[in-house]
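Researcher: Here's a chain I'd like modeled. Treat it as a single chain, no partners, no ligands.
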Amino acid sequence: MKKVGIFYSFRSVKTHQQIKKMIKKLGEENCEEVDVNIATLDDFKKFQNFIFAVPTWFDGELPNYWDEYLPSIEDESFKGKRFAIFGGGDQKHYPENFVDGIGLMAEFVGQRGGKVVGFTSREGYTYESSKAERGDKFCGLALDIENQSALTAERIDNWIESLKKEFVA
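Model: Modeled as a single isolated chain. Structure tokens:
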């Protein structure tokens, strides 16, 4: 497996906790963490395989740090690159835009020729709508630490196992 660039905000405590679990499962030697708050185009160009951590903010928006980083890579070709996207949401308090950030990022990646991998089942979630829906799946890993924390570890384990098959050389 080629090294995986894991892009996320180092300031996000909950996301960092989930990233640590993912790195343990993937193997430290296979991962490089990149702080999206200070990431550059050169950071992006180093990888073929990515994990993007994209929580949903406010009423279904990308976090500010992603809004600030994406223009620096938007003119790049994503062809031949694989992107796994995960993010946190709150299906109880924000059921009308649950994990929309995942869907927004998948759209951005797809428009540039990148391949989104790591689709997961929508079963077990209760919400009204989500931009992350693709048929009967989410186009990434949806985590609801606020309401379903007991399911998080198993969801991460299953997702990482699927990514190991997707992130082949």
